[in-house]
Amino acid sequence: MKIKKTYILLRVVLYAVLTFNFALSTFNLLAQSGGAAINTTGTAADNSAMLDVSSTTQGVLISRMTTAQRDAIGSPAQGLVIYNLTTKCFEFYENGGWYNMGCVCTPPNVPVAITGSGATSTQITANWNAALGTTHYHLDVSTSSSFSSYITGFNNQDVSNVTTYNVTDLTCETTYYYRVRAENTCGSSGNSNTITYATSNCCTASGWTYVQNFNALNTGALNGQDGWSDAGLQGIIDVVTTGTPYEGAKHVEFAGSTSGSSSEVKTFTGVSNGTFYVSMKGTATTSSAGYLLFALISGSDYAIQFGLNNGNIWHYPAGISTSIQAYSANTYYRIGIQFETGSGGWQGLAADTYKININNGAWSSAQPFSSVSGALDNIRMYSYSKAGELWYLDDISFCP
Fold first, then answer.
1. Is 143 helix (H, G, I), strand (E, B) or coil?
2. Alpha-carbon distance 189 to 291, whole Å?
3. pTM of the prediction?
4. CATH 2.60.120.200 region(s) of the chain?
5. Is 90 exceeded by the pLDDT of residue 195?
6. Any idea which fold 205-399 has?
7. What DSSP designation does 191 have?
């Protein structure tokens, strides 16, 4: 009986060994320091590969899922690869979006968002370039640069097949961020770049106490018109129709002299806080160029100064020359200033501080005045030009 049991046990072991060897003869999984190989030949993995799969009768099948299932993946890893059953595409994850590597049909390219336009106190216009193969676009708008939240109605808002869209019911003097995605029946692109754009001042049309676009003034010398007077005139400061005004048919041209600067001053009732806007441009941008500056003055103190100089847009917090950005020749730049000279609190500003923005972009952080002795009571525009240079100023507006 003992011999019979031993014989049966030996048979079982023999069958197991034969079965294992047979399995190895049809399928091999080999591991070595250079990587792992899966094949039916027993060939080692290529030294350059972590995983080397080889077959002449079978392929590799990666994760397959719908777009909804893909979008439910939490925090996808950079370079994650799937096959999308909805779009019939191989896709990989990169920089916050899914991109296709090959499709039965092809989703559109990622669109490029461009600078906003048409800012009012309650509206901005979002703009972007057309993406090939698009049937419609989806727009996100947020007050957060990370899009951690969205304004009502603009979380993946379908705006149809357009390349510009008015975003309304916004808050005045607020910075917004927008991005866009292109979509067709094959799927969606990744996110575009993000554009920063701000709504304009909270003043209503009737609230602006001074608006001057120079269109109603006579051409020729600015001196003596609308309360403007010469203050150290060395060159020519004229109202002109040439040089493409910022708005309307006229603007102010500064054709200076190499012997000194030229300036015009306008006095107004002292104000403790408010918002100024002015548009400026120059024909020269080199480091040897002259300048066009604008100042908000308290008595004889130049409280806030800003303008174009040496190829950059400058301002002077605490009297220190500070570059904001470069400017292009023959291009108008709309510069906004919010200021507080009183006890503080207006628009969140402390006393004797200001904020600045360019072309309705984001407002800067609060900056200290250059100097101040009380409420602001006059404005001054002044220029120094070299041979062949012209400077232009247009569309001044103020709301207390």
1. coil
2. 45
3. 0.56
4. 205-399
5. yes
6. Jelly Rolls (2.60.120)
7. -
Which 3-state string (H, E, C) describes 64-81?
Answer: EECHHHHHCCCCCCCCCE
**What are the residues facing 255 on neighbouring strands?**
236
Q: Which helix (H) or strand (E) holds 17?
A: helix 2-26
Residue 286 · residue 280 · CB < 8 Å: no
Q: Thinking of the domain 113-198, which architecture would CATH place it in? A: Sandwich (2.60)
**Per-residue pLDDT at 199:** 87
Q: Per-residue confidence at 150, pLDDT binned at 50, 70, 90?
A: very high
Burial class (CB in 10 A: 0-12, 13-18, 19+), 180: buried
Residue 163 exposed, middle or buried by CB count within 10 Å (0-12, 13-18, 19+): middle
Rounded (10°) CA dihedral 205, 308, 357, 164? 80
Instruction: Answer yes or no: are the C-beta atoms of 260 and 384 closer than 8 Å.
Output: yes
Q: Where in the chain is the domain with CATH 2.60.40.10?
A: 113-198
Nearest-10 Cα torsion for 32, 34, 36, 40: -80
Greater pLDDT, 129 or 5: 129
DSSP secondary structure code for residue 218 in this structure: P
With H, G, I as helix, E, B as strand and everything else as coil, classify residue 342.
Answer: coil
